[in-house]
Design a protein that fits this description.
The complex is a heterodimer. A six-stranded mixed β-sheet of chain A has the order 6-7-8-3-9-10, with helices on both faces. A four-stranded antiparallel β-sheet of chain A has the order 2-1-4-5, covered by helices on one side. Chain A is α/β, with parallel strands linked by helices. Chain A is built from seven helices and ten strands. The N and C termini of chain A lie far apart (40 Å). In chain B, helix 3 runs parallel beside helix 6, helix 6 runs antiparallel to helix 9 and helix 9 packs antiparallel against helix 10. The N terminus of chain B is likely disordered. Classes of the chains: A alpha/beta, B mainly alpha.
Chain lengths: 242, 266
């Protein structure tokens, strides 16, 4: 296993209008692991992921992905990005969507069918994507990223709207991918999902509250409940005057 | 090196890939194919509207030695229809790409901006070719539209005009935040060109500055090209200069459109 981090972020600052969205973040994302990016809605998770993928205008700081500056053309065949809202074509069938994205990465129909099976949508392959439920559309969107077998998968809230069984299956799938060498950066606002990650980044108000592992976080905060651990971290931070 | 980084060569994507352009054109056409009503309207609407024009002027006397009003106006409409339809369809399609997040996603893949724009141009250009063949066939066969020159030239002009519509539609979509705004760009972009192209008032009878404005609007040259092919069995080289001007305007708009596809946004 490669010991060089897949993503290195140093002093990252992002402004949106006059508001500071990310305020000087520094952290590494280890290769071949599932790193969870957790925090409440509006904490800057999506902006951070966009910066890693290279589509976010950045004020200052450095983001290095797989050894190259974020957004480098060489990275385009190596990163899979799944946005929070399913970004697929509603007026194409499920299979047509995944095949199109497969083609963009030089892959064929076999790879597309395999990706569809991975997200449990093989039976819906011929259906129009726009006719599916929100959760199913999200899985089509995920399949369109999985199909390229990227080295880094950036997934923005991939389990929103999924039933518990499917959510468990997907997290199992993420763990399998990591074991095979893929690096995953997965955001969630559900603390329950934090325990499934190898590493955790806790984000709040554009600041990094914790860069840790679930076990370490539990030990440091003196609770087994990760939600409670997060709350204690927030309170501890607020008691210290800035 | 992890196991997964060795499975393929890593190199920067090309600025233009025929394979990815074709894949994108195929994808756009497949989207169109699932929308039966749009396909039906694309194919039938221009012919139906031309039929209405035909009926309006059918019983009007034509001064001897002059082409009938329908021959003049109907022929020019063969440039206007594909331009308007493709402008609208493309600006909405591209606006959807921008608002649904698919554009942002595409820009993180090896697909280049040129591939994307040419893919759209190719797909809607092909749709326009089918539309033009149907419309020209109905106009000449059904309504007796009189075209002196070869009909294939009429189809070529219609297709180039459609590509111009695609290019301007792509560009316009960058300035629209909603579909309400996007559809209103249609009268803004189309009507001044229609008013000034010489169809309503002959261009040499307009005020000088209006002629100058008309000179820089590409539809003027598309209509001029159609009038040349309509009037002469063997149209001269001026016709192809007209077509080249329209094609050049389309390329210019495509280039400007590429500039509006930003990989990094706030």
């Amino acid at each position: 296993m490669d010991s060089t981090p897949a993503v290195q972020v140093a002093d990252l600052v992002v402004d949106r209008g006059s508001a500071r969205v990310l305020d000087g973040l520094t952290f590494d994302v280890p290769a071949g692991r599932v790193t969870g990016l957790l925090g409440p809605s509006g904490s800057g998770k999506t902006t951070l992921m966009r910066a890693v993928v290279g589509v976010q205008r950045v004020r200052s700081g450095r983001v290095t992905v797989l050894g190259a500056p974020a957004g480098s053309p060489v990275l385009r065949s190596r990163i899979g990005y799944v946005t929070q809202a399913p970004s697929v074509y509603g007026d194409l069938t499920v299979r047509e969507n995944v095949r199109y994205f497969a083609t963009l990465f030089g892959l064929g129909a076999t790879a597309a069918d395999a990706a569809l099976a991975e997200v449990g949508l093989a039976a819906a392959a011929g259906q129009l994507t726009g006719d599916l439920s929100g959760g199913q559309r999200g899985r089509v969107s995920l399949a369109c990223a999985l199909v390229a077998r990227p080295d880094l998968l950036v997934l923005d809230e991939p389990t929103v709207g999924l039933d518990p069984v499917l959510r468990a299956e997907l997290w199992q799938r993420f763990a399998d991918l990591a074991r095979a060498g893929t690096t995953l950066l997965v955001s969630s606002h559900v603390m329950d999902e934090a325990r499934r990650c190898d590493r955790l980044l806790l984000l709040r108000g554009g600041l990094l509250l914790a860069d840790s592992t679930p076990a370490q976080l539990r030990a440091e905060s003196g609770t087994d409940d990760l939600e409670e651990a997060f709350l204690r971290l927030v309170r501890a931070r607020e008691e210290v005057p800035a | 090196m992890t196991a997964s980084t060795t499975h393929r060569a890593v190199r920067p994507p090309a600025a233009f890939s025929p394979r990815l352009t074709a894949a994108t054109a195929g994808r756009v056409l497949r989207q169109l194919r699932h929308d039966h009503r749009t396909v039906a309207m694309m194919l039938v609407l221009p012919s139906a509207l031309l039929g209405l024009l035909y009926l309006i002027w059918r019983d009007q006397p034509t001064p001897p030695g002059q082409p009938s009003t329908f021959d003049t106006v109907g022929l020019a409409m063969l440039a206007v229809f594909p331009f308007v339809v493709m402008f609208l369809v493309t600006s909405i399609a591209m606006l959807r790409e921008r608002t649904s997040g698919t554009l942002e996603r595409l820009l993180t893949t090896p697909l280049s901006r040129l591939d994307l724009l040419l893919g759209y141009g190719l797909a809607f250009g092909a749709a326009a070719a089918v539309q033009a063949v149907v419309t020209v066939a109905v106009a000449t066969g059904g309504y007796g539209l009189d075209v002196a020159g070869p009909l294939w030239v009429v189809v070529v002009i219609a297709v180039v005009d459609a590509v111009l519509g695609v290019a301007l539609g792509l560009l316009a979509s960058a300035f629209a935040r909603s579909e309400f705004q996007a559809v209103q760009f249609m009268p803004l972009v189309v009507l001044p060109q229609f008013f000034l192209c010489g169809l309503l008032v002959a261009r040499d009878q307009m005020a000088g500055w209006l002629q100058v404005v008309g000179d820089v609007l590409p539809l003027t040259w598309a209509v001029d090209a159609l009038q040349r092919v309509g009037a002469s069995r063997t149209p001269d080289g001026r016709l192809w200069v007209d077509v080249a001007i329209v094609a050049g305007a389309a390329l210019l708009a495509l280039g400007l459109g590429a500039g509006t596809l930003r990989r990094r946004t706030g």
